[in-house]
Amino acid sequence: MPQITVDYSASLDTVLDRRRFALELHPMTAELIDTTAGNCRTRFRRIEETVVGDGAPGQAFVHVEMAILAGRSEPLKAELAQAVADLLGKHTASAAELTVHASVEVRDLSAAYRKPRVNA
Protein backbone atom coordinates (compact mmCIF):
# COMPACT_ATOMS: atom_id res chain seq x y z
CA MET A 1 0.00 0.00 0.00
CA PRO A 2 -0.30 2.42 -1.77
CA GLN A 3 -0.87 0.57 -5.00
CA ILE A 4 -0.18 2.95 -7.89
CA THR A 5 -0.89 2.33 -11.56
CA VAL A 6 0.18 4.68 -14.34
CA ASP A 7 -1.40 4.17 -17.76
CA TYR A 8 0.29 6.23 -20.46
CA SER A 9 0.28 6.69 -24.23
CA ALA A 10 3.17 5.09 -26.07
CA SER A 11 3.92 8.53 -27.52
CA LEU A 12 5.18 9.56 -24.06
CA ASP A 13 7.98 6.96 -24.05
CA THR A 14 10.69 9.52 -24.77
CA VAL A 15 9.19 12.12 -22.44
CA LEU A 16 8.13 10.34 -19.25
CA ASP A 17 11.07 9.00 -17.24
CA ARG A 18 9.03 6.40 -15.40
CA ARG A 19 11.64 5.44 -12.80
CA ARG A 20 12.40 9.06 -11.89
CA PHE A 21 8.69 9.84 -11.66
CA ALA A 22 8.13 6.91 -9.28
CA LEU A 23 11.17 7.76 -7.16
CA GLU A 24 9.82 11.29 -6.67
CA LEU A 25 6.23 10.11 -6.24
CA HIS A 26 6.92 7.59 -3.46
CA PRO A 27 8.42 9.90 -0.80
CA MET A 28 5.91 12.64 -1.60
CA THR A 29 3.03 10.18 -1.19
CA ALA A 30 4.51 8.71 1.98
CA GLU A 31 4.79 12.14 3.58
CA LEU A 32 1.25 13.16 2.68
CA ILE A 33 -0.51 10.00 3.84
CA ASP A 34 1.81 9.07 6.73
CA THR A 35 3.37 5.86 5.46
CA THR A 36 6.86 4.96 4.23
CA ALA A 37 8.16 5.22 0.69
CA GLY A 38 9.01 1.52 0.96
CA ASN A 39 5.30 0.75 1.10
CA CYS A 40 4.63 2.39 -2.28
CA ARG A 41 4.38 0.18 -5.35
CA THR A 42 4.06 1.64 -8.82
CA ARG A 43 3.48 -0.16 -12.07
CA PHE A 44 3.44 1.42 -15.50
CA ARG A 45 1.27 0.25 -18.36
CA ARG A 46 2.21 1.52 -21.80
CA ILE A 47 -0.87 1.87 -23.98
CA GLU A 48 -0.15 1.33 -27.66
CA GLU A 49 -3.19 3.16 -28.92
CA THR A 50 -5.13 5.93 -27.23
CA VAL A 51 -7.78 8.18 -28.71
CA VAL A 52 -8.46 11.52 -27.09
CA GLY A 53 -11.49 13.60 -28.01
CA ASP A 54 -11.98 13.71 -31.78
CA GLY A 55 -8.81 11.69 -32.38
CA ALA A 56 -6.72 14.60 -33.64
CA PRO A 57 -3.00 13.80 -33.92
CA GLY A 58 -0.57 15.04 -31.29
CA GLN A 59 -2.68 14.00 -28.30
CA ALA A 60 -1.25 11.93 -25.43
CA PHE A 61 -2.89 10.48 -22.35
CA VAL A 62 -1.61 9.63 -18.88
CA HIS A 63 -3.72 8.55 -15.92
CA VAL A 64 -2.47 7.79 -12.41
CA GLU A 65 -4.64 5.64 -10.16
CA MET A 66 -3.69 5.47 -6.50
CA ALA A 67 -5.34 2.97 -4.20
CA ILE A 68 -4.68 3.63 -0.52
CA LEU A 69 -5.92 2.11 2.72
CA ALA A 70 -9.27 3.48 3.82
CA GLY A 71 -9.51 6.05 6.57
CA ARG A 72 -7.95 9.11 4.95
CA SER A 73 -10.16 12.17 4.66
CA GLU A 74 -11.52 13.39 1.34
CA PRO A 75 -9.57 16.67 1.64
CA LEU A 76 -6.34 14.68 2.16
CA LYS A 77 -7.08 12.51 -0.87
CA ALA A 78 -7.76 15.67 -2.90
CA GLU A 79 -4.45 17.16 -1.71
CA LEU A 80 -2.64 13.98 -2.72
CA ALA A 81 -4.34 13.95 -6.13
CA GLN A 82 -3.31 17.57 -6.75
CA ALA A 83 0.27 16.94 -5.67
CA VAL A 84 0.48 13.94 -8.02
CA ALA A 85 -1.07 15.96 -10.86
CA ASP A 86 1.52 18.70 -10.31
CA LEU A 87 4.35 16.15 -10.32
CA LEU A 88 2.94 14.56 -13.46
CA GLY A 89 2.83 17.98 -15.13
CA LYS A 90 6.49 18.51 -14.25
CA HIS A 91 7.42 15.14 -15.75
CA THR A 92 5.51 15.67 -18.99
CA ALA A 93 6.31 19.35 -19.53
CA SER A 94 8.94 18.58 -22.17
CA ALA A 95 6.31 17.05 -24.48
CA ALA A 96 6.13 20.26 -26.51
CA GLU A 97 4.90 18.49 -29.65
CA LEU A 98 2.09 16.74 -27.76
CA THR A 99 -0.98 17.88 -25.89
CA VAL A 100 -0.85 15.78 -22.73
CA HIS A 101 -4.19 14.96 -21.15
CA ALA A 102 -3.34 13.97 -17.59
CA SER A 103 -5.54 12.86 -14.72
CA VAL A 104 -5.21 11.40 -11.23
CA GLU A 105 -7.63 9.36 -9.15
CA VAL A 106 -7.11 8.55 -5.48
CA ARG A 107 -9.41 5.89 -4.09
CA ASP A 108 -9.68 3.61 -1.09
CA LEU A 109 -8.57 0.01 -1.33
CA SER A 110 -11.39 -2.45 -0.85
CA ALA A 111 -11.92 -4.05 2.55
CA ALA A 112 -10.93 -7.29 0.81
CA TYR A 113 -7.34 -6.06 0.20
CA ARG A 114 -4.80 -8.44 1.73
CA LYS A 115 -1.07 -8.99 1.74
CA PRO A 116 0.43 -12.43 2.47
CA ARG A 117 1.45 -13.02 6.04
CA VAL A 118 5.15 -13.47 6.58
CA ASN A 119 6.18 -16.17 9.05
CA ALA A 120 8.09 -14.71 11.95
Mean pLDDT across all residues, rounded? Answer: 93
Q: Tell me, briefly, the overall form.
A: elongated
What composes the largest sheet? 4 strands, mixed
Q: How many structural domains are formed by the residues? A: 1
Lateral arrangement of strands in the main beta sheet? 2-1-3-4
Give the oligomer, counting copies of the same chain as homo and different chains as hetero: single chain
Relevant CATH superfamily = Macrophage Migration Inhibitory Factor
Number of helices: 2
Looking at the structure, the CATH topology is Macrophage Migration Inhibitory Factor
Which regions have little confidence, pLDDT < 50, spanning 5+ residues? none
- Beta-strand level of the residues, as a percent range? 25-35%
Q: CATH first level: which class?
A: Alpha Beta
Structural class: alpha/beta
The count of strands amounts to 4
Percent of residues in helices: 25-40%
Distance linking N and C termini: 21 Å
Q: Order of helices and strands, N to C? A: EHEEHE
